[in-house]
Amino acid sequence: MQAISVIDGATDTGNLENEIVYVKFFNKERGVVQSFLGIEDIKHAHADGVLSAVQTVFEKAGLDNWKEKVVFLCADGAAVNLGKRNGVAAKLKEEIGHLLAIHCVAHRLELGLVDSIKENQRLKQLQEVLQYLHQQYHYSPKALRELRMLRMLADAMEEKVLKPTNLKGSRWLPYIHKATQILCNSYAIFVAHFEDQVSPERTTRPSPAVMGRAKNILHYLKSHTNVQFMHFLLDTLDFLKALSLQFQQDSLTPGEAVQYIEACLNGLTELCLEPGEQQKKMLADAMNGTYRGVELKNTTTDTLATDRKKITDMLTKHIESRLEDLLSTESIVQTFSSLDHNVWPKLDNSDESKEAFVLHGRANIESLCHHYQSVLVREGTTVTEVLGEYRLYKIWARMRNGPLRDTLLEILQRVDLQTKFKNLGIFAQIYLTMAVSTAACERGFSCMKRVKSDWRSSLSIQNLTRLMFLTIEGPSLDTFDAKRAVLQWWQSGSRARRPGFTAWSSGGRQNQPTAEENEEELTIEML
């Protein structure tokens, strides 16, 4: 069993659309592995073109029967990938009836925040300030001088300052967190710099556009309520950033994703009830109406309780809506929770608890058997055999502690349990190879841009794949033994490779060394 994780194509430096493919599979020695399989040019940017590129990647890897093994597809939310009628997932489901497709959870988390920003005026206003900051130092022709001035001010005030980042960068939520964090940490420096820009005593006057941005930002940053809101949002983004980073783990399973979501939502509920660490620290530092040397306007003792509740409730609503298929108890992904011994009913001496324990999970296992019927037929097993092993599994696993992942890996790797749970192991493999995030693919495209740079824009797709494979899957430089590779290069040329000087006579090269002499000489040099 294996799952493919596909993301829509990215354009490289040669202006070519590429599709990257990762596979997640189980190996008895290595456990669950997510590995780079290949990258391929997209001839046409519609679903058939993407599917053709994916097919080519699998064929080049020698996996002509890949459609018999694939059980899961994770992609970004583009219509070409997950469109209900003509997307890649829809076309694959016509041939693979049991295939499950999911939109990357890390992307959906960021979209949940974007939905919230669209609904709340305070969030919109802060977003505009962050964008103004980025424009002030990025698009202005005097950006370098402005940044130098910031650093000079920072040295004078013993403050640290970083260049404001773009709020609309990569579709990963930590970038939004970073933009807000820079604003909060370098608050005093930004205020001092903008006050200098709007000062009538300044000899060099900025352009009207720059002056207007500076006045707007300064007006916002001197409000006690706004500064307090900035720090409340930073507390909120701390929880969302942690969730986003957890979503980007290669080993993430659907059950773990649900646990992380619930923990994050609980953290947002705590912020609704009382201020977070950043907001508390800001309020303590601004007790006398001055915060980090800046006199604030409209000083108040209000802790924004109404805004905190409104925003945390709104974030919770949108996150739950975006991740509904994972959180819903009726989804096929949630039916795998019947394997999780951590959520089973407690078994004691009462008849009621025994009955609840015996019946728990049976309906879900039957649903899984029905959904993956074609897989069970191919593996030569039946629903009755799976249910029989599930009863044994419940007796064996009910006293165990630890995550479900460790339990399932044990029954797949221990020889005695492989035989005991031979049929139930099919579902264990399916569950463990479900990829719910495309973070690996995003990292793969970053690798592609490093390998196929402006100076190497004519790399063929074959050489690009090989170089990316070495970068992503190859050994580290600390552990790599280059002797074998150098010997191969030394002996593979049609002419002798002699880096040193070779004597010539009037009749041409003399005493041409043999391959054995070459190898011996190279070995001596390497030693």
| Unreliable parts | none
State the helical fraction: 55-70%
What is the average of the pLDDT values? Answer: 84
Main sheet?
Answer: 5 strands, mixed
Proportion of strand residues: 5-15%
Counted up, domains total 3
Question: How are the strands ordered across the major sheet?
Answer: 3-2-1-4-5
The coarse silhouette is globular
Number of helices: 25
Question: Taking Cα atoms only, what radius of gyration do you get, to the nearest Å?
Answer: 30 Å
Describe the structure.
This protein is an alpha/beta fold and 527 residues long. The protein folds into 3 domains: 3-104 and 437-473, 2-Layer Sandwich (Nucleotidyltransferase, domain 5), CATH 3.30.420.10; 109-327, no CATH class; 332-433, no CATH class. It has helices at 47-60, 79-82, 88-95, 105-119, 121-138, 143-157, 174-185, 187-198, 208-221, 224-247, 254-273, 277-285, 305-322, 324-327, 351-359, 362-371, 373-379, 383-397, 404-413, 415-420, 424-432, 439-451, 461-473, 483-492, 515-526; strands at residues 2-11, 17-27, 31-41, 70-75, 100-103, 290-291, 294-295, 504-505, 508-509. Strands 3-2-1-4-5 form a 5-stranded mixed sheet. Strands 6-7 form a two-stranded antiparallel sheet. A hairpin with a 2-residue loop joins strand 6 (290-291) and strand 7 (294-295). The longest helix is centred in the middle third of the chain and has 24 residues, at 224-247. The chain is globular and about 85 Å long. 34% of the residues are buried.
